[in-house]
Amino acid sequence: MPIVCRLREMMAEKKLKQFEVAIATKLSPTIIGNLYHNQFRRIDCKTAEKLCNYFGCELGELFQLTDRPSASSVDSPPSKLKT
Q1: Can you tell me the distance from the alpha carbon of 74 to that of 20, in angstroms, rounded to the nearest whole number?
Q2: pTM (predicted TM-score)
Q3: Which of the four pLDDT bands, split at 50, 70 and 90, describes residue 73?
């Protein structure tokens, strides 16, 4: 089960732009953009803390486990090549 970031939804609710969140949280626009597009492999504790404080939410509201398969799942076995 992959973990997804709900930053896009949370920003949409408050009509915020990525750059506005980056400035307010003092996080880089690249970090905000990666989380917004769910393009991350690790979750930095300080980043999560700043975003949770900014949005007034709990960690489980910002990041959620989903049932949809991950494109780069660590647990998936390597594919077999036909020769």
Answers
A1: 33
A2: 0.77
A3: very low
Q: Which residues pair with 4 in a beta bridge?
A: 64
- The b-or-e profile of 47-83 (16+ CB within 10 A means b, else e) is beebbbebbeeeeeebbeeeeeeeeeeeeeeeeeeee
Give the pLDDT band of residue 67 (cuts 50, 70, 90): confident
DSSP string, 4-55: EE-HHHHHHHTT--HHHHHHHHT--HHHHHHHHTT--S---HHHHHHHHHHH
CA distance linking residue 9 with residue 69, whole number of Å: 20
Do residues 11 and 32 touch, judged by C-beta distance below 8 A? no
